[in-house]
Amino acid sequence: MNLALAPLFERGPLHAILAREFRAALINRYFQVFCALALLGGIAALVFSEDGSAVGFFILQIALYFVSLFSLLAGVSSAQGEREEWPLLFTQPVARGAYVIGKFCALSSIFGGVLLLLFLPALFTSSAATLAPLYVQTLLLAAVFIACGLVAGFFAHDRAQALIVGVSAWLFLLFGVDLVALFAARWPVMQNVPDLWVAALMFNPLDAFRIEALFALQQIPAEAANKTPLANWWIEHAGAWFAAIAIFWSGALLKIAGLRLNRWEE
Amino acid sequence: MTASFRAPLIIGAILCLTTTVLTATLQERIDAATPNEIICIGAGTHGSIAINKPLTLIGQPGAEIRGNGAGKVVAIAADDVTVAGLRITGSGLNLSDDDAAVFVTGNRATIEDNTIANSLHGIYLKKVSGARILNNRIEGKTTISPSAEPVEKGIGQSAENCDTTLVANRRGNGIHQWNCEDVLIRGNDISETRDGIYFSFTNNSRVENNVVHHTRYGLHYMYSDGNVFENNIFAENAAGAAIMFSKELIVRGNHFVNNRGLRAYGLIIQSTDRSRFEANELEKNAVGLSFNQCNGNQVIGNRVRNNYIGLKFGSNSDENSFTENIFARNLHPVETGVLEGSGNKWAVNGVGNFWDSASELDLNQDGIGDFAHRELDLFGILRRDFPVIAFLSDSPAAKLLRFANERAVIPGISSIEDPAPLTSRFWKLRAQRIAKAALPSER
């Protein structure tokens, strides 16, 4: 491992942070609510969907709206959880980046487990082969918003401010980007550079997730394909692109969170 | 099929099993036969035939009439001819000569239980009445010989010279009708042809219980009036069915499924008036149901689900009524150029349609929503001017705007308004009402 990164992955501190996060998750109301929602959503998908593809479509909606939101809230909550302890915690001989990495890994693992509540009931009507890619994509989406929540939590002065910043970011990515795109599409200048418009959507993790999942599940005719080289490429590589953009966003946000902690002074 | 209709075939089949093998060619036997005679065709390959008198030809298992790759294989010029139980292959490939496996110009022909393959058109009906096309299997010709003439190759083949694929536009139709009357087409399985069933200037006919798949248009239909289409399946074609320039049709109980070309439709209706489209299933198509320049049609109880665009509704259609249809899980429920106030009815006698995005507020529990439902065509003309707008399909932002439009009309964007949207409980409540109303009379 790179020597510069080695302190981030020291087994002792990482293990301690992971253990603490798992314990904290058990009493975290966001996790409790999300567990209930995931289970209800999974059962609802099973009960109200008429076939396997409908189950996938139902889960897609839950992932888009709820998984993204609750992973963000979990990130915010975790980042703010020990804020008052930072002066003490940061006296320990542990890289601050390990603190970020540990929280991210712990929360991602917890979501990996909790998401099974959403997906397992669907196995009664859909095959594991159909649902497995959607599960992995949903987990990647959760990872992005956990990282987003951690950044919001580490930057904010208190929990309320962190929630406001985090939820605003989520609303912007969920609705704002597409609304701006929709209005921009009517602008003649933008119509001359459709690839720029497409690129803006591609960099939004929620759009990248929606397009990948939607096109895979619905097999809708890609009327947008072949219209521009970039649109065509996106359609053909939607899965790989979403994985790449999710890893990029997660990595970039974790880096920002790490920098923030490194510069923090009491 | 009625019993009286089947009787000659059954008798013929029995006779076939007991007849001794004859040495004359099939054409010689036909020429020598007396009118209305039953001719049994034994197993083996026979050459092309022309029938000029009323006859019944019944093939035994393994009987094949194979053309030499030119012209028609079975040409029926007389009235009251029956051809049944044969494999018919090897017609010519010249579209301008109407080459076909079975070419019918006599009235009241019955073509039944045949397998047709390796030909241009499957069954070609030209200016006939009373024909019955029953339970045939028709497979289009998808390849041509590499040794075909260079000119023909240039027209007929796909891009590469060494490629022997016969492109769809150069294939024939499964069942082709021109200028016919009173035709019954029932129980046929048609695949890999250009168009499955082709109607032109053909009136007062019935098409029922056929399966058409893997063709260009499952049904290609124009200038034909008063026909009935019932319980057919049009699946996995480039386009399900195109009905154009016709009137007074009944299209009922058909399935238009999985027709997913880039510009494919489940059912496209163009310039068609005073017809009834009822209880059809339009599912998993690029566009489920498309109306353009159609007037005075009734669209009742159809299920339009899981399509990319559910209903494409041209602005130049008037006086059409829509009731009890289900529009569910379409990524774009409606594409329309219609602004509110058009002459179409989205509810009949206070009964509208089910829209899965409509609110289900129904305080009096009659299965009909308390507020009108507006279905917004958010992308509108952008679909044409800026096709990548499709990437916003089913986006939260699009849903947010549709939600907002339910409460207050967003100006300048096309939409339709259903004044009496149905809730998901409408059908259950109605069944209960009917059952309750029937109780006193039973007593």
Q: How is the biggest beta sheet of chain A arranged?
A: none
User: Roughly what percent helix of chain B?
Assistant: 10-25%
Would you give the CATH topology of chain B? Pectate Lyase C-like
Q: Which regions of chain A are unreliable across 5 or more consecutive residues at pLDDT < 50?
A: none
Helix content of chain A: over 70%
Under CATH at level 1, the class of chain B stands as Mainly Beta
As a whole number of angstroms, the C-alpha radius of gyration of chain B is 26 Å
Greatest interface and its participating residue counts: A-B, 36 and 28 residues
Tell me, rounded to a whole number, the average pLDDT of chain A. 85
- Structural shape of chain B: elongated
* Whole-number total of structural domains of chain B: 1
The proportion of residues in beta strands of chain B is 25-35%
CA(first)-CA(last) distance of chain A: 32 Å
Query: For the residues shown, what is the average pLDDT of chain B?
Result: 85
Give me the number of helical elements of chain B. 6
Name of the CATH superfamily of chain B? Single-stranded right-handed beta-helix, Pectin lyase-like
Assigned CATH architecture of chain B: 3 Solenoid
The gyration radius over C-alpha positions of chain A equals 20 Å
What's the β-strand tally of chain A?
Answer: 0
Question: In words, what does this structure look like?
Answer:
- The complex is a heterodimer of chains A (266) and B (443).
- In chain A, 79% of the residues lie in helices and 0% in strands.
- Chain A has twelve helices and no strands.
- Chain B is an alpha/beta fold and 443 residues long.
- Chain B has a single domain (25-360), classed as 3 Solenoid (Pectate Lyase C-like).
- Chain B is built from six helices and 39 strands.
- In chain B, the strands form four sheets. Chain B has a 13-stranded parallel β-sheet, with no helix packed on it. Chain B has a twelve-stranded parallel β-sheet with strand order 1-4-7-10-13-16-19-22-25-28-31-34, sandwiched between helices. In chain B, strands 3-6-9-12-15-18-21-24-27-30-33-36 form a twelve-stranded parallel β-sheet.
- The longest helix of chain B has 17 residues, at 426-442.
- The chains are: A mainly alpha (266), B alpha/beta (443).
